[in-house]
Amino acid sequence: MRYAYAITGALLLGGTAIAVTTASNVGAQVAQNEGLQAAAPAGAPASLADMVEKLQPAVVNISTKQRVKVQNPFAGTPFGDMFGMGQGQPQTRQAQSLGSGFIISADGYIVTNNHVVSAGAEGASVEQITVTLTNKEEYTAKLVGRDPATDLAVLKIVSPKPLPFVKFGDSTKARVGDWVVAIGNPFALSGTVTAGIISALHRGTGGTYDKFIQTDASINQGNSGGPMFDMRGNVIGINSQILSPSGGNVGIGFAIPSEQAAPIVQQLMKGEAIKRGYLGVQISPLGEDLADSLGLAKNRGEFVQGVEPGKGAEKAGIKAGDVIVSVAGQEVSPDQNLSSIVASQPIGSRVPIVLIRNGQRQTVTAVVGERPSEDELNSFAQNQDDDDFSQQDQNPGQAAQQSLGISAIPLTPTIIRQLGVAADTRGVVITAVDGSTDAGAKGLRRGDVIISANNRPVASQAELDAQVKAVAAQGRNAILLQVLRRGQQPIFLPVRLRDK
């Protein structure tokens, strides 16, 4: 690292300042910052002051008072009745939460995040929501509606005079590199303003409907629910999440785009329940292994693991093993996942769906249904994360001789009864897995039934090996297996071939 040192001095004699220079300095000297004014970046004002002055009154602080029930820590001890605490009786405590929001109408409708106005712990209830304006006026707010799936909520306050408000802009026109401004109340500091650029669009963080705007504008705890403005002062995002190991800003913040938020907010303002489109399919991302096993490009489409009986997908002829690549003309990709595309379709509408089956593209038409409640969905969906794949009862020496590191035998009526699977099940049952292979790493184990390989039925070890050879001959490094485990629905699992 290089360091440059400069030494200047001033002698004050009789109130006169004398500059000390070296003999090499010639002529009048000026400060480096004399008369300097930085040019504004293209599309950005030289100062944000005028814009912030107009926008800030519409941004509010939101706080809640919550009642939380906690267990008596002295229950069952001699101290249980001290200070009026009955043994085993839960105690009630007060808690608070803090966030931001913004007014969207002169009569007092306010948008914020659902998590800002929700109970923060199990057993907690929100007793009061308080909205504080920049002029320190306080109002008790009513919760008009909420949508936990997108983390949005609408509040209403009543004011004797019209309130300052802001309007939504069009986030579809936003580009990576555009300047944005975030206003909110981080760390209970009223009216904090930060600026930055858009770092990414349609960013997912694991949620079904995630399509966040990512920004490096500082967003911290308490900014949640506050607005993200473009340089025209329009709300193009609602600050919602941060990615941070410390809990503070590290330059990775996420905002719900206005294109997603505005229609939901309008429905909530009307008191309407949020309804979303539904096809009735269980899907998996088309990651590298799965794409390789199908001979397709990764992250272009989503794989159908299962189809719910009687729903739109089954009626349209969609089957497990299909890859859906577009819906209603919108390509399915990590930026636009299948769930979010279908959710935005009108219920009852007929939509064209392009899919790939056995390497061939075809188009079907499905009628979009209404998405059931989460409880209903859980009864159909298979939670693969809950599968206990860790208990391996294998003979690696035997399995190591096989092409996939899997040793299997044909199903017989006796084995079918022992496994507890349907009597008409056809396939081979795994007797051993080599734990050093991808099959072992993916959790295949003794007792699993392989129904098909490479979308072909298999009834013997020889047929399984033949499909492995066929896949290898096509230059693919993974094979798609359909696997059945007792008490569960069949799933498709890509397994990488052994290294030779």
Span from first to last CA? 50 Å
Largest sheet features: 7 strands, antiparallel
* Global morphology: elongated
Number of domains: 4
What oligomeric assembly is this protein in? single chain
For this structure, what is the CATH homologous superfamily of the largest domain?
A: PDZ domain
Number of strands: 29
Mean pLDDT: 81
Class by alpha and beta content: alpha+beta
CATH architect. name of the largest domain: Roll
CATH topology type of the largest domain: Pdz3 Domain
Share of residues in helices: 10-25%
Neighbour order of strands in the largest sheet: 7-6-3-4-5-9-8
List segments where confidence is low: pLDDT < 50 over at least 5 consecutive residues: 1-24, 382-397
Radius of gyration: 31 Å
The tally of helices reads 10
Strand content: 25-35%
CATH class of the largest domain: Mainly Beta
Structural account:
Substrate binds at residues 115, 151, 222-224. It is found in: Periplasm. This is Probable periplasmic serine endoprotease DegP-like. Residues 370-402 are annotated as: Disordered. It is elongated and about 85 Å long. It folds into four domains: 52-75 and 85-156, Trypsin-like serine proteases (Thrombin, subunit H); 171-269, Thrombin, subunit H; 277-381, PDZ domain (Pdz3 Domain), CATH 2.30.42; 396-496, Roll (Pdz3 Domain), CATH 2.30.42.10. The longest helix is centred in the last third of the chain and has 13 residues, at 461-473. Helix content is 14%, strand content 33%. Residues 1-24 and 382-397 have low confidence and may be disordered. It has helices at 49-55, 258-269, 288-294, 312-316, 338-343, 374-380, 396-399, 413-419, 438-441, 461-473, and strands spanning 10-13, 16-19, 59-70, 91-103, 109-112, 124-132, 138-140, 142-147, 152-156, 179-184, 192-203, 212-215, 227-229, 235-242, 253-257, 277-278, 281-285, 302-307, 323-327, 330-331, 350-357, 360-367, 369-370, 406-410, 428-433, 449-453, 456-457, 478-484, 491-496. It has 500 residues and is an alpha+beta fold.
